[in-house]
Design goal:
alpha/beta, FAD/NAD(P)-binding domain, 60s Ribosomal Protein L30, Chain: A, 7-stranded mixed sheet, 5-stranded parallel sheet, 20 helices, 36 strands, binds flavin-adenine dinucleotide
């Protein structure tokens, strides 16, 4: 009897991708709990290991080396990934809040969001300093300094270990670029690194002096404006660039969470890391304070908390007794001095030596390697039944025999689930700015939608498209599925007016299903509202895997289909391609987070504006690029307007970031081969050692919510590309129609403009 899949019975949400959290997530990946759904909520796809930030500033580490890719970790753990900044928690009602997206339900919550330098402590800091955290923001500003010619007069506020380390790293980097900076380190305390041994503090003082850094102790900055620091003793100092590396503080919104907080606003937890007020919530790292055993806000404690956190989350799930954790009183801190050595501080001891730098690098790299080289367990490809199938080549292009089946392109769900999900999603969409005209009429139940017919001189146009879970964020999936379905109407220059939702939910408890459906519908409703389309109803069933789709209706002028003229029929594409290979690589943990991020941004981008420009530039005909891949869609379009085939110039074909690398390294979506078999390709026009082989492969890559492809005269095509680019589209003329050859011919010739 086929083993039924375990319905989802509980939701464990990891808020933040901090040092403790990544260890807990990996633990649940290695030892999964059937029926427990994991969700990771993070502001960024990448989580930094801040202990390596000074090394990054001085040039020792690159961006990949100091980051953990949370998209990989989520895929590895089979967890949903929600990339959005949490702006509130309702600990009693088990909800996380965000701007412009639905609240997320949790049964068990683990918080590890770290802290941010307190910008409110210094007037004008928000506008004038570069805070060291959030690190993604720091990196962007740091690089703009490197590109804009390295200002000389630098102020760094914060005399702790992180501040001292950063000052020496900046000093080394500036000298590396041939600039002698005048760096001044300001600290309100009378000693440097007050949390370290006094020996270590003296060694740092000497290291800073040797590096030519000016040190100003007992200098509390109370105000800052452009170029000037104002101290509480009314003195001032000038600067060109100012960094802030002060003590971290918790986010303001925690105050309204109902969670018990310590006097500084950090989450109070028992030694079990369980909130002292809400037993279903845990916290670790800088954001948490262990009652009766507070520790400095340092990464070493966040890392150590990881094992206890995963153990206690699991014990809490099964109602078992939790284990207490007593963080060590003395801990080894190693602070780099950017001179080939480092200072080690432990209890009252402090030493400076090269070996400590090697030890620091070894500790940091060992931690990161646990999360940077994740490999998806290899799933053997299904093998055909020897007795009834010949080992022919047939299976090469049958996705059923692919080791990993790519996603993306079955019983009715309970009335209560549907009713409350639709109501919540509609309210959220309204609050997020959706036009009420396009929102469903809540409470009015009709079996079918009565719609107004198309205006005079127009035909009714309909289409339907359903996606499986190409992204694990249900809100985003709703949005992408809506835009994917609408593109069929945009491709025929139709104005979409209404939609019906078609959603299949995996088995889960009612509250979990309701929250998932709310997320999906809210994402879909916002997308439909942006497109001026009303959701008139739909069908929601349950069982098996998640799928989301829309049937869309609209109208288009009943013009006679136009035909293209030989010699003046050019192909324009509106979005780069590569979503298939990138999302397939993501499933195999070999795609970089920034590639996944840009692919998802492209899929979540509507083709409405592109269609408007197509219409205004007299497009002859168009199509949207989806599962069959560009080559097949281009061939279908060419034949629809009277041509036999087309010539595609790979040199001008826009690809998504990372797609070329992935194609060159042999990665393919499971539908790739089938698409390849469906088109006759003629490569005679390609130059011998063409550098565009990856682009050639991209022609067979199945797209989800891909762009539009249109045929226009040359003059209209050039005008269209200008319009599209001015609206932020990565558009291009990629070829022309051929009225003699029934194939897709590839070229890489340079076209003189
Ligand atoms: C320059 C520098 C050097 C340092 N060197 C060391 C060192 O050598 N040794 C040491 O022990 N400590 C060091 N520290 C301190 C250390 O960085 C922190 O103690 C540590 O980062 C805290 O880790 P954490 O796990 O609590 O959170 P973090 O590492 O800050 O991670 C927080 C995560 O939560 C996410 N997040 C935050 N807010 C939200 C939100 N609202 N919604 C969704 N996601 C959110 C972030 O994107 C991030 O992924 C250093 C700090 C700095 C600034």
């Amino acid at each position: 009897m086929k083993k039924p899949s375990t319905p989802t019975l509980g939701e464990l949400v990891f808020l933040g991708g901090g040092h403790a959290q990544v260890s807990a997530i990996k633990n649940f990946a290695m030892f999964p709990v059937p029926g427990l759904r994991l969700t990771i909520v993070t502001s960024d796809y990448l989580t930094p290991y801040s202990g390596m930030l000074p090394g990054y500033v001085e040039g020792k580490w690159n961006d990949d080396e100091i980051h953990i890719d949370l998209a990989h970790l989520a895929q590895f753990a089979g967890a949903r990934l929600v990339v959005s900044t949490c702006t509130g928690i309702d600990a009693d009602r088990h909800k996380l809040f965000f701007n412009n997206r639905p609240p997320l339900h949790f049964d068990l919550l683990s918080i590890n969001i770290g802290g941010q330098p307190d910008l409110s402590a210094i007037t004008g800091a928000k506008e004038n300093v570069i805070p060291v955290k959030p690190i993604s923001n720091f990196q962007a500003l740091f690089h703009s300094l490197l590109e804009s010619g390295l200002p000389k007069k630098i102020a760094v506020i914060g005399g702790g270990a992180a501040g001292c380390e950063l000052v020496l790293a900046l000093n080394k980097r500036w000298h590396y670029h041939g600039v002698a900076p005048q760096i001044t380190l300001y600290s309100r305390t009378s000693t440097l690194m007050s949390q370290m041994s006094s020996k270590a503090s003296h060694l740092m003082l000497k290291a800073l002096h040797d590096a030519g850094i000016k040190i100003q102790l007992k200098r509390a900055v109370k105000k800052i404006d452009k170029g000037t620091l104002y101290f509480d003793n009314e003195e001032t100092a000038n600067y060109e660039t100012c960094f802030l590396v002060s003590a971290v503080r918790p986010p303001e919104w925690l105050k309204s969470s109902a969670l018990e907080l310590d006097k500084n606003g950090f989450i109070e937890v028992h030694p079990t890391l369980q909130s002292t007020s809400h037993p279903h919530i845990f916290a670790a790292g800088d954001i948490a304070t262990v009652i009766n055993n507070p520790r400095p806000k340092a990464g070493v404690f966040a890392v150590r908390a990881g094992a206890v956190l995963s153990k206690n989350l699991r014990k809490k799930l099964f109602g078992k007794r939790l284990v207490g954790w007593s963080a060590q009183k003395r801990y080894l801190a190693i602070i780099g001095t950017s001179d080939g050595s480092a200072i080690a501080s432990w209890g009252h001891f402090g030493f400076k030596a090269k070996i400590f730098l090697k030890l620091k690098y070894w500790i940091d790299r060992r931690f990161m390697e646990k999360y940077q080289n994740l490999l998806m367990p290899t799933v053997p490809a299904p093998v055909a039944f020897q007795g009834i199938f010949l080992p022919t080549d047939l299976h090469r292009s049958d996705p059923a025999f692919a080791a990993m089946r790519c996603l993306g392109c079955a019983a009715k769900t309970g009335h209560k689930v549907l009713e409350s999900a639709l109501e919540d999603a509609t309210n959220i969409a309204r609050l997020a700015g959706a036009d009420p005209v396009f929102l469903p009429d809540i409470g009015i139940e009709t079996d079918a939608a009565v719609m107004v017919g198309p205006p005079h001189g127009h035909n009714l146009v309909q289409s339907v498209d359903v996606l499986s879970e190409i992204v694990s964020d249900p809100f985003l999936l709703g949005r992408i599925a809506a835009f994917h379905a609408l593109s069929d109407l945009y491709a025929v220059m139709a104005k979409p007016t209404s939609a019906l939702a078609i959603i299949n939910l995996p088995e889960a408890s009612l509250s979990i299903q309701t929250n998932q459906l709310t997320q999906i519908l809210a994402g879909g409703l916002l997308a439909l509202s942006e497109s001026g389309v009303k959701l008139n109803g739909g069908h929601t069933s349950e069982g098996g895997t998640l799928s989301v789709g829309f049937s869309v209706t609209g109208y288009a002028k009943n013009d006679k289909p136009a035909m293209a003229r030989p010699g003046d029929a050019f192909l324009v594409i509106t979005k780069p391609i590569g979503t298939g290979v990138i999302m397939s690589a993501n499933m195999q943990l070999i795609a970089k987070a920034k590639w996944v991020e840009s692919a998802i941004l492209q899929m979540a981008k509507s083709n409405r504006l592109a269609a408007k420009h197509f219409d205004s530039t007299n497009v002859i005909a168009a199509t949207d690029i989806t599962g069959f891949g560009l080559a097949r869609h281009a061939l279908n379009l060419s034949r629809r307007v009277g041509a036999k085939g087309c010539v595609l110039n790979l040199r001008y074909l826009p690809l998504l970031a990372g797609a070329a690398q992935l194609f060159s390294s042999g990665v393919r979506s499971s539908l790739h081969n089938q698409n390849c078999d469906a088109v006759v390709i003629d490569s005679q026009r390609l130059s011998e050692n063409t550098e565009f082989t990856a682009h050639a492969e991209a022609l067979f890559d199945p797209q989800t919510s891909g762009g539009l492809l249109g045929v226009l005269t040359r003059r209209n095509a050039e005008h269209l590309v200008e319009l599209l680019k001015s609206d932020g589209h990565n558009a291009a003329i990629i070829g022309h129609l051929d009225f003699n050859n029934e194939s897709v011919q590839l070229s890489d010739k340079i076209i003189e403009s």
